[in-house]
Amino acid sequence: MLKKLAVCALGLLVAAGAAPASAQVDLGNGFSATGTVTGATDYVFRNISQTRSRPAIQGSAELSHEVGLYIGTFASNVAFPNTNARQEVDLIGGYRRTIDNFTFDIGGTWYTYPGYSEQPGQYQLSYAEAILKLKYELEPVTFVGTAAWSPDFFGSSGNSLWLEGGADWKTPLHDIVISGRIGYQWIDNNARFGAPDYLAYSIYVTVPIAYGVSVAAGFYGTNISQSECGGLKVCDNRFIASVSWTF
What is the pTM of this model? Predict the structure, then answer.
């Protein structure tokens, strides 16, 4: 069974492609809120399709305080092979702090799949991850890194570790951002997960439009062959386009 079928992260709020620039609503007393609605041609998590290469509608919301604490949620449709899982709802929380050009984010995500019921021979899909995210801004380039660990990964596949690094370059043309990421996923029980440990890589472009709307497009790949992916195409290389509205 494939992980989720498994962005900054997110760990922070994750969605296919790049997230648009954050816009916040001041709620007073140090609190602020933001939300994003995204439509995408596919939903990939660590470059493996969660929707069997079909479109996704997603939403995320975050409530934060000026001391650095935040809570949030992310929701999307999913379609895992041979399961009745049709939606994902994640609960997110953590602490984020910026010091000069450096930002660190220590948090966790509980990935859940409401409505999913285990059939004979199947395993629980929900799992939790502890996530560390680092960001360093050296205009016009931002360097990012993510480490995520789970004691029992998707599909009860055991201990897992995800490491990812990359960079975002804000071009002088209309604040267009070109991003690149490379990461590696380790999983204890590969047979239960449905794929081997793997390399993931992506390059994508995000273009801000107006009023919180942005569009993104990019290439997402893994080094998993179709035979190593149970004969499925969810691990294949793919192009994804999305449009997001942040409010």
Answer: 0.89
